[in-house]
Structures are given as C-alpha cells and as structure tokens.
Amino acid sequence: MSTKLSVNINKIATLRNARGGNLPNVVQVAKDCEQFGADGITIHPRPDERHITGKDVDDLAQVVTTEYNIEGYPNDRFLAFMEKHKPTQATLVPDGPNVLTSSAGWDTVAHFEFLEKITAQIKSLGIRVSIFVGTDKSIIENAKKLGADRIEFYTGPYADNYSKNKEAAIQPFIEAAAIANEIGLGINAGHDLNLDNLAYFKMNIPNLLEVSIGHALVTDALYYGLENTIQMYKRELA
Ligand code: PXP
Question: Which residues are known to be catalytic?
Fold first, then answer.
C-alpha cells in the first residue's frame, strides 16, 4: 500500500514573510509541489500569521487540486476556514497560540466533549477529521469514540529516539497502530520525519495512509531542489 505524501509548506511562508514581499510565492510552490508528485498540501495557519496567513488559506483553496489539509487548534478562526473552504481534511492539534511548533498530541480523554462537538461540526461539512495524538491506548480508543476518521501520530519522539535505538523508537507506534487498525481508525503521521527515519516508520506501520512533512523536506530542497526532494520522499514511501 502506498502512503500519501502531503507537503507542509509553512516554511515556504516563513521565508516569504522574512522580507515582506511575495518571494517565494506560496501559491506557486504549492502548485509546483503537486506537479512534482506531492499527494497533498498541508498548512497550519497560526493566529499570529507568522507563516501561513489567512489570505494564503484562501488563495491555496483556489489552486490545490490534490488533498488540502488544514491543521490547527480548532478555534473560531479555524472553524471559519472550514466553513469557507471545506478542505479535504482537518487535522486538529492542541497547540496554544504561541508555541513554536506542535510538541504533543491531544489528551482525548480530558478534552473528549470538546473534541466530540468540534469533530461532529467539521464532519457535517463533509470534511475528514484527523486528531493529532501520541501512542497511548486510551487516547487512541477515545479518538475513535469521539468520532474522528483518522489519527495523526505525533512522531517527534520517534524521530528523537531513532538514531539511538530505532527498534525501541518504533515499538510504541507499532502497538498503537495495531489498536487503530483494529478499531477502524485511519493512520496519518507527522513531525520530524525525514529521509533517514521515514522508510523505517513506513515499513513498520501497516496501513499508514498519509505523512505530512515540512521542515526536513524544505531543508533538503535547498540541497537537492524541490522536484528531486519530493521524488526522494515518495520513493521512501513506495
Ligand atoms: N503535523 C503537525 C500536526 C504539525 O504541527 C507539523 C508541523 O507544522 C507537522 C506535522 C510537520 O512537521 P515537520 O515540519 O517537522 O515535518
């Protein structure tokens, strides 16, 4: 089974914002990623607009022809994007507005009612809902109970431990994926995945539907070019 590669283009917007103009052009980069083989485009429009802006969310909605995945904390602004654009997928992350990057999954037990309500609201728009989680059994079971279609594994801990002991690093994800597969939750994954650790993750996680990758992919593109880099990541997932 092949796994979809959704390219997270936040860092392209970070680079653009550093100068205040429109270089690189985020919309053009999204179109090029798709042409170079990306199966989807992911963005994380944060309230401070430090990378993806509200205008980017609107502009990208006009051009993305593959899967449009919008991730973020489900506040009113996020829900307004859902209503307006009906992307392919909403990935709900628990980040507060000022964090540098997502560094943990949801506690789906503590926030069950909130997530259940939001998930139903987003699903009623015809949008697939994925919930960013760690590997704890009860967290995954509750993601299913609250109505999510998929989970996205927070792979930061896997990436951190991969170089020390890859067997130990993957073990909790193997166990968590078995639970998700058994109860019928789709599996996505993201955070700190790269050309070193991606193939091993894919090899060990049956039914991995999608990975979203930004930081390492954009960094690799500085050396290999965007087209080559996307093809290299796709080969790891074949
Ligand atoms: N998934 C989620 C929920 C994220 O917040 C991020 C970072 O924006 C990613 C995946 C992608 O992580 P990375 O940029 O490390 O590839």
Answer: 44, 71, 191
Distance 182 CA to ligand 1 centre (A): 26
CATH of the domain at 117: 3.20.20.70
Please enumerate in sequence order all residues whose Cβ is within 8 A of that of 114, keeping only pairs 6 or more positions apart, or say none.
none
pLDDT tens digits for 165-222? 999 999 999 999 999 999 999 999 999 999 999 999 999 999 999 999 999 999 999 9
Domain count, the chain: 1
Q: Which domain holds residue 32?
A: 4-237
Ligand 1: which of 93, 212, 215, 230 to mutate, most ligand atoms within 8 Å of CB?
A: 212
Whether this prediction's pTM lies above 0.90 is answered by yes
Give helix then strand counts, H and E, for the chain: 11, 8
Across the range 7-13, mean pLDDT stands at 98
Q: Is residue 132 in contact with ligand 1, taking CB distance under 6 Å? A: yes
